[in-house]
């Protein structure tokens, strides 16, 4: 068995140009000497300025610093306005909660039992309607994952609403009985 080197040596010989490594690319200068130094600052021009002797004692020393301070003032004002709006929204929500709790607490025992019975009938009725519609779709072969998801979404929304009002009802009725 012969090695790779033996097989390669037995083949045709390469010319020195073919065997040599490729030449690296050459950089062709296309800028003149004056353009390469044109970006440097000329200290003899009028653009170089001096600062007053009390420069370091000034509260705002640069335009960038002044812009930053202005931006910080604007941000602080915006934060304060947002905090005030948040406080106002909390007050409105608390007022609405208190109104609903007072209405539910004002119900008599008979009225609250009627409300619970009506709520139970509505939930059972909704479940029956959704089940009947789903069975009809299944019988016709039109029941899909999309319709099942729609039904589950309706049940989830009703459950969330029931949870919220149930919490208010329990809070109001619990405070009345104690």
TrEMBL record:
Signal peptide: none annotated. InterPro entries: OM14. The chain crosses the membrane at residues 115-135, 147-169. Coiled coil: none annotated. Residues 28-48 have a biased composition (Low complexity). Residues 1-92 are annotated as: Disordered. Residues 68-87 have a biased composition (Basic and acidic residues). GO terms for cellular component: mitochondrial outer membrane. One of its GO terms (molecular function) is nascent polypeptide-associated complex binding. Keywords: Membrane, Transmembrane, Transmembrane helix. It comes from the Eukaryota. GO terms for biological process: protein targeting to mitochondrion. PANTHER family: MITOCHONDRIAL OUTER MEMBRANE PROTEIN OM14. This is Mitochondrial outer membrane protein OM14 C-terminal domain-containing protein. It comes from Phomopsis amygdali. The lineage of its organism: Eukaryota, Fungi, Dikarya, Ascomycota, Pezizomycotina.
């Amino acid at each position: 068995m012969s090695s790779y080197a033996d097989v390669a040596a037995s083949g045709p010989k390469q010319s020195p140009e073919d065997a040599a490594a490729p030449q690296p690319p050459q950089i062709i200068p296309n800028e003149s000497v004056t353009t390469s130094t044109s970006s440097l600052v000329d200290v003899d021009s009028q653009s170089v300025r001096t600062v007053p002797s009390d420069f370091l004692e000034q509260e705002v020393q640069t335009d960038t610093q002044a812009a930053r301070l202005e931006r910080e003032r604007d941000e602080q004002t915006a934060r304060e306005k947002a905090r005030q709006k948040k406080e106002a929204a909390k007050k409105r929500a608390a007022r609405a909660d208190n109104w609903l709790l007072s209405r539910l607490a004002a119900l008599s025992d008979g009225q609250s039992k009627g409300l619970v019975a009506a709520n139970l009938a509505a939930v059972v009725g909704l479940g029956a309607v959704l089940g009947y519609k789903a069975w009809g779709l299944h019988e016709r072969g039109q029941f899909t994952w999309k319709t099942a998801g729609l039904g589950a979404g309706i049940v989830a929304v009703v459950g969330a609403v029931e949870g919220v009002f149930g919490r208010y009802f329990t809070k109001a009725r619990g405070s009345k009985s104690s």
